[in-house]
Automatic annotation (TrEMBL):
GO molecular function, one term: lyase activity
Keyword Hydrolase: yes
Catalyzed reaction equations: ribonucleotidyl-uridine-RNA = a 5'-end dephospho-uridine-RNA + a 3'-end 2',3'-cyclophospho-ribonucleotide-RNA
Organism: Nycticryphes semicollaris
Limits of the EndoU domain: 1-228
Protein name per its UniProtKB record: Uridylate-specific endoribonuclease
Amino acid sequence: RLFSYVAEERLFSRPTFSRFLALLDNYEEVTGHQEKVTAQEREEEEAFLDAIFQTPVMATLTSFFLTKGLYTSEETFRADLRDMWFGLYSRSGGKVLDSSGFEHVFHGELKRGKVSGGHSWVQLYLLERAGTLNYLSYSYDGPWATFPDVLALQYRWGQHLKSIGSTFLGSSPEFDLALYTLCFKTRPDRQCHVSLGGKEATIQTYSWANSFYGDNQRFVASSYPLSP
């Protein structure tokens, strides 16, 4: 097994975790299937944003962006974050709006017999707990002695193989989203080098180039920690 123990009652009752969990049943996991966003699902997205913007890590990121002039206020940053992560686009050649950056990175998708995206340890844990994830092996275990750590691994989601994937392990949703957003805005489509707990980590981001939102802004296509 990938996970031997997770303190669910203590961890998943925290506001950011509980509201993150509420989002994970909102998606059609197979690409090519239209995503239908209900009013309740929009409310769940807003509740999640409410929770993460009350955390120190998002406050730090907001302050950094305002200082650098990327945004004029927390409200404009939050609105843009919502669009870049939750805005829908098509991974099926324009047939249907079947994907978003958040779905791809934090939930994962099944495309052409393989797992695409899927970089949230929480989602991997839930899939394994449900009996639908078969952990096969790992190729990299980061140098951190505590969490968050970085793990590169191979697994099957049902019959779909993830030949190599990577994730932060033991991190919070707000940590992942803040770090990925930082790198997406400052180092889009390339490697983003950061220092975490005195150790070096590298984030790779990709933007979606086939459609846009707002004033020709690009959606998040993917973001994840690289492994050697």
